[in-house]
Amino acid sequence: MNEDERSGLCHDDSEPRQQGMSRYLPLVGQTRHRAEAACKPTSWGLSMNRLKGCALATAALVALLATASTLAEQPSAKPVQEVKIPLNYLPFDLKGYLRRPDGNGPFQAVILLPICGAFLDSVDQNWGAAIVSWGYVVLTLDVFTARGIKSGQTCPYPAPPETVEDVYQALNWLVAQQNIDRNRIFLVGFGRTGTVALSTVERDVATKAKRRFRGAVAFYPACGTNKGVMAAASLVIVGALDENRFEACRKMAEGNDDIGISRQHGEGIPIEFVALPDAYSGFDVPQYQEPVEVHGVHVEFSKAATERSKEILQRFLRAVGQ
């Protein structure tokens, strides 16, 4: 693990895999039927010819099952495209990766915001690949490097406020692309970009934007600076063992006051709050197989929490995208 990854701060594909397998079930059933017929003994037992037929039929069934399993695990998607998104009135572009599922669309879409530029590739490969296999266009976006915000020791600190404006420019860019369902685009952030995701869909900000996100998802955000008055459906996922973030996000979701911020119950669209048991922040980052402490925050990967969080995310996207 390099210093950027250590200072910063994969995929439950069971359902797509099962859907892929379903395409092969009729052929598998026919082949199995033939194998059973070829291997069924007569009153005289199995002749040499029938033994050969049985062996061939069984081999065909094994080969078909292996092929179906392998092909089913491959998400039906087009090659990843590196893109640059220009920022109006600024002399630089944001770098990102665009993934598209096969087909003509229009497709719902998800913008992913890695916690740091150093995690752009990791988030694209672990989350982008999973989400595109669910049938969404995915844009994984680095909102830090172009502004000179390097990874490393800056990763745990709050993102600058202009990041929210950059995210909306990325939304406008994505809407202009072909085969995008412009009314069903979601925003997903991690850590400090989870806080950005929440800020982006807060009512005071979202109502001034040209276009709006359908929903936002924040993984282990700080929550303490967010009012929690949302203009879009929102989901917050934290590790229950991260007591500080658990408590701050619970208060925000329930509309309770916190240190330095006052809130009111019942304002805005309700926030869905999920705490994953036996998980810390960074539970979805494979680089943290060995836990680390980053500015007082315990960061540790959990395969079980990652798989569970992807189930929760997929459910949220489908429910809100209806």
State the order of secondary-structure elements, H for helix, E for strand. HHHHEEEHEHEHHEEHEEEH
* Fraction in beta strands: 15-25%
Q: Compute the separation of the termini in Å.
A: 40 Å
Query: What is the β-strand count?
Result: 10
Q: Count up the helices.
A: 10
Jot down its keywords.
eight-stranded mixed beta sheet; 10 helices; 322 residues; 10 strands; globular; alpha/beta; 39% helix; disordered N terminus; two-stranded antiparallel sheet
Task: Give your account of this protein's structure.
The protein has ten helices and ten strands. It is of the alpha/beta class. The protein has an eight-stranded mixed sheet, with helices on both faces. It has a two-stranded antiparallel sheet with strand order 9-10. Strand 7, helix 9 and strand 8 form a beta-alpha-beta unit. Helix 3 runs antiparallel to helix 4. The longest helix is centred in the first third of the chain and has 25 residues, at 48-72. Residues 2-75 have low confidence and may be disordered.
Brief digest:
By secondary structure, the protein is of the alpha/beta class.
Chain-wise SSE layout:
Blueprint: H1 3-7, H2 14-22, H3 25-39, H4 48-72, E1 81-86, E2 93-99, E3 107-113, H5 120-133, E4 137-142, H6 162-175, E5 180-190, H7 192-200, H8 203-206, E6 215-219, E7 233-239, H9 243-254, E8 271-276, E9 292-294, E10 297-299, H10 303-320
Parallel strand pairs: 3-4, 3-5, 5-6, 6-7, 7-8
Antiparallel strand pairs: 1-2, 2-4, 9-10
